[in-house]
C-alpha cells in the first residue's frame, strides 16, 4: 500500500519531525547540539512553530500504511523574487525508512510545484548524504550553478514536465504502463484518437509497441513529458512521410496529456517541442487532424496552425458516434 500524504503545517507531529531533522543536520555538520532549544534561531523557530515559519509554504506529511502518525515531511517553499520553488526539509524517521515515504513526498511536492505553473524546482543537499542525492538524481535533478556557496552543499534543479525524445527502447520500456495508461486515459476522457471505449490496457500497450518499431525504422518520433513520479504525463508523436515526393512533410499524431496534468500548458509545450524537432530534422510542413470543435482545436489555432477544411463523419468518437474532423497544416521556418 502507498503512504498517505497530507498537507498540514499545523499537525502536532510536525514539530518533532523538524526538530529531529535539524538535530541530525547539526550533528552531520559537526556542530551538534543536544536539544531543539540549542539550535540556531532560524532552525529553532521552524521546530517550535512550523505553522508560523512556513505560513506561505506547502508542508506535506507522510504516514505509512497502517500507521496513525506521520513519519515523514517535506516543505515546498513558495517562489520568491522570481526564483523557482524550492524543496526543503525532506525527512523520514529512521524506523519508517525503506517504505517509499521519501519518494512519495517528493512526488507530491513535484506535482504541487508543476501545478503552480513553475518551469522548474530546486533544492540543496549536503554532498555526503548519499541516499538523498541518489533519490534526487533518480527524480531528474541535476547540479546547477550554486546559489549558496557553503562548502559541500550541492545545488540541484529539475525542469518540470520537461519534454524529451524517447529512443525505441525507451518507448518499449514505457509502453506497457505509462504510455498505455496515457492512451487509455485519453479514450476514457472522450478523445477521438483512433480507438473505441473501453480501451483495454493490453491493446494500448500493443499500439505503443508497434510505435516503438516505427521509431526504430525512423518513421515515428515519440516525445514525452515525465510527471513527478517519473511516469509519462504527456506524449506527442511525429510521423514522417516516406514517399519520395513527401519527405519534407510530417504529421503530428497522438498528442495526449493525462487529465491529472492538464491546465498548466503541457499540451502547448509538447506541440512546440514536436514542431521544433521537426524543423531541426529537415521538415518544412506539418499536418494533423482533430475532431471538430474539440478542445484541441483551440490549442492548434493558438499555436498558429491553419485550418484546411472539415470532413463530415470522418471518424467515430470513443462512444462510436461519427464526428466531423478538421484538417490543419503549419509551415515551419
Structure write-up:
The chain is α+β, with helices and mostly antiparallel strands and 333 residues long. It has 2 domains: 156 residues, Gcn5-related N-acetyltransferase (GNAT) (Aminopeptidase); 169 residues, Gcn5-related N-acetyltransferase (GNAT) (Aminopeptidase, 3-Layer(aba) Sandwich), CATH 3.40.630. The strands form 2 sheets. The protein has a 7-stranded mixed sheet with strand order 1-2-3-4-5-7-6. A 7-stranded mixed sheet has the order 8-9-10-11-12-14-13, sandwiched between helices. The longest helix is centred in the middle third of the chain and has 21 residues. The protein is elongated, with a radius of gyration of 24 Å. The N and C termini lie far apart (51 Å). The model has no long low-confidence stretch (mean pLDDT 93).
Q: What would you say about this model in short?
A:
Helix content is 33%, strand content 29%. By secondary structure, the protein is α+β, with helices and mostly antiparallel strands.
